[in-house]
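## retry 2 of 3
previous attempt timed out at serialization; input unchanged, resubmitting
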Amino acid sequence: MRLTAAHTKHLILIAMILILSFLFCGTDSSAQVKTGKFRIARLKYSGGGDWYNDPSAEVNMMNYLKKNTTVDVDEPKFYSVDVSSDEIFDYPFILITGHGNISFSESEIKRLRLYLENGGFLYADDDYGMDESFRKEIKKIFPNDELKELPFNHKIYNIHYSFPNGLPKIHEHDGKPPQGFGIWQNGRLCVYYTYETNISDGWADTREHDDPQEKRDEAFRMGTNIIIYALSN
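## retry succeeded, writing output
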């Protein structure tokens, strides 16, 4: 069969439509992290760890932001999110904490990587007991990247409040000095991990831990730094 010019143009048009359809179908339109009123979302996870502990922490931290910064904070309440849900992209800042084991499925690993590579920020706070499993799971998410300790002169320690000696020590745990680690993607800090301090416990209601006011103030100020840094970088 001899192809006429009209047939050729028709086939080219069909090919272009198929290519465009493939490209648009392969694009995850939900992958871009949304902006809006600020909320902290607690990340749910499997494995047996208590991802849900001290739900007053984020509420108090958001109230502190409302009173002491210009951050446009949404209604202060406990928000939680599942890794596999599209809702994760509604939160530019998520918190993972707990005392026990963390386990992500293969699909959750890919989803969390997508979130972090597209503008999301993960703040991980060891609540004494999640260090080993968190390091193992974050390595699955970013196998070619190491958690690197941030120097005391990093912007996160002075962006709003000054912490010239790095992280404050909120809880004793093993008595080791507090450390803050990070992972960067495309030059942006997207994971910040605090170890041997437990900043988010310092945000919780006093009946939970009975921390002295001095320690609570340090925890709120450091939390403010982490959040402002995450939102502005």
